[in-house]
Specification:
The structure holds two protein chains of two kinds. Chain A is α/β, with parallel strands linked by helices. Chain A contains twelve helices and ten strands. Chain A folds into two domains: about 290 residues, P-loop containing nucleotide triphosphate hydrolases (Rossmann fold, 3-Layer(aba) Sandwich), CATH 3.40.50.300; about 30 residues, no CATH class. Chain A starts with a helix and ends with a helix.
């Protein structure tokens, strides 16, 4: 089978072809990359929703409830207007449908949802136990849902290095919403904010005092904050601590300026730009705090509403496009780095790299000097 | 990056709640460097086949202590085949009477591992069967 065949099978909704391609993409094989190339013109339509938070806060159960809720909504109510997201250029594949055609199941039907659930790989054996499906049994048997578990395979940012590529394939396959559940993440696993359009940070009562909430990292990336297990005692305290830390963490925003957080060469940066739009409240996103009980679904409609409001905010302010641009730029930079490294090492003579390493090991030259020498010799 | 990981689904079909064995096997396979998708208790054959498809696994391990293996196992095999996953290796743990073993092996089950089995035996069997399927 050629990659074109595989791509058209995926576009036609073949779940086996999709599942097998996800494996190839995850393993970074040539077939996987070829399939990704063929599918790429069809990406850029899905709303990527990241779900992160500490272990045991109820991320998987919440994803289960959220997907159940979305499956009862039509695409229109769950996704609102399409706005700025679906501009496609330069798609010239002959045998594949036009990427701007929106396939068979569109408009009024229920929205289709994919879940990518990430769990950690053992640093010792390289194996992993992926257990997020245990909490998602309500979604079994629904042809509009596709759940894929993946292991981090050595990545430390809370997702795997292939998670973005996996999401791209699911996006091309026509899933309107893609929920990405990170590993149990504490403070610095913030990769998900680079990948997702909307990042949900899930907290639960009883997980630490309020100084935890003002440390850098995971709370800063939240577009929506969730206090799950809100039926437990202590939920009020958790919400109060979050509310307090949110008040402190909002950067000062002068009137008449638009403030975005976007990815720039691997860093999240806050940019401001002058705007003439009148309503300042339109331009600043303050993460709402939503209380949920994932066991019975309480608060889930409100959570879906907050996610939708965030999507509308991104579209209204143009931040959607900026985020996408930043995301693709990071991906490009990373691929370029890897490729240049592979190319460069293939130009080195046998043992040249090892000799440099030995010199560094014996403290004769510093790592910087070693790089300088290697690069200069092969310029 | 391009190293192939063996992916295994561990599931408990039927109604018994004894999942200690399934968890022990999951852990032993993890320690052998495999990626285990663990689905938990009370799965129907349909749920198992669907998960095996979405996760594109190489093998499915079923833990059955209820005595319903002669009903559940053929059904899982049939559904895997119907989904185009006849290459997926199915193995069994739990309580299986000796007289059922040859019948199950004939259906295509690659191994049956009762209480007391050393983990090396199923780890090696699964690795070998998966390697052969990809050879």
């Amino acid at each position: 089978m050629t990659e074109m065949d595989v791509a058209s099978m995926i576009l036609a909704g073949d779940r086996l072809a999709l599942a097998r391609t996800l494996t190839q993409v995850e393993n970074g094989t040539h077939q996987g990359i070829a399939a990704l190339n063929a599918l790429f013109p069809y990406t850029g339509k899905a709303h990527l929703i990241g779900v992160t938070g500490a272990s045991g806060t109820g991320k998987s159960s919440l994803v289960n409830q959220l997907v159940r809720y979305y499956r009862q909504q039509t695409r229109q109510t769950a996704l609102a207007e399409h706005g700025t997201t679906t501009t496609h250029h330069g798609a010239t594949q002959q045998s594949l449908p036009n990427p701007t055609d929106s396939g068979p199941s569109q408009a009024e039907g229920p929205c289709r949802v994919a879940v990518v659930a990430v769990d950690p790989t053992s640093p010792f054996s390289g194996g992993a136990i992926l257990g997020d499906r245990i909490r998602m049994r309500d979604l079994a048997g629904d042809p509009g849902v596709f759940i894929r578990s993946m292991a981090t395979r050595g990545s430390l940012g809370g997702i795997a290095s292939a998670t973005g590529a996996i999401a791209q394939v699911l996006d091309a396959a026509g899933f309107d919403l893609i929920l990405i559940e990170t590993v149990g993440a504490g403070q610095s696993e913030v990769e998900i904010a680079r990948l997702a359009d909307t990042t949900i940070v899930v907290e639960a009562p009883g997980l630490g005092d309020d100084i935890q909430a003002i440390k850098a990292g995971i709370l800063e990336i939240a577009d929506v904050l969730v206090v799950n297990k809100a039926d437990l005692p202590g939920a009020d305290n958790t919400e109060r601590a979050l509310r307090g830390s949110l008040g402190l963490s909002r950067p000062f925003r002068p009137a008449g300026q638009l403030v975005h957080r976007v990815e720039h060469h691997g860093h999240l940066v806050t940019i401001t730009e002058p705007t003439h739009k009148a309503e300042p409240t339109d331009l600043v996103w303050v993460p709402p705090i939503i209380r949920t009980v994932a066991l019975d679904g309480r608060g889930v409609p409100e959570l879906a509403e907050a996610i939708m409001a965030h999507r509308k905010y991104l579209e209204r302010t143009g931040a959607w496009g900026l985020r996408e641009r930043g995301r693709l730029q990071t991906e490009l930079d990373l691929l370029l780095q890897n490729r240049l490294l592979v190319d460069f090492r293939s130009r080195l003579a046998d043992g040249e790299y090892e000799t440099a390493l030995e010199e560094v090991l014996e403290r004769r030259i510093s790592p910087f000097q070693a790089v300088e020498e290697l690069v200069n010799k092969h310029r | 990056m391009s190293e192939r990981k063996i992916r295994v689904l561990i599931a408990k079909p039927g109604l018994d709640g004894h999942d200690r064995g399934a968890k022990v096997v999951a852990r032993a396979l993890r320690d052998a460097g495999m990626e285990i998708i663990y689905t938990g208790l009370r799965q129907t054959p349909e749920m198992i086949a669907e998960a095996a498809l979405q996760e594109d696994v190489d093998a499915v391990g079923l833990s059955i202590l209820s005595g319903a293996h002669m009903a559940l196992v053929p059904r899982v095999l049939e559904l895997l085949k119907a989904n185009g996953q006849e290459h997926v290796k199915v193995f069994l743990g739990g309580i299986v009477p000796d007289e059922d073993v040859p019948l199950l092996l004939k259906m295509g089950v690659i191994g049956i591992y009762g209480p007391g089995t050393l983990s090396e035996s199923y780890v090696n069997d699964i690795r070998k069967a998966v390697m052969e399927a990809h050879a």
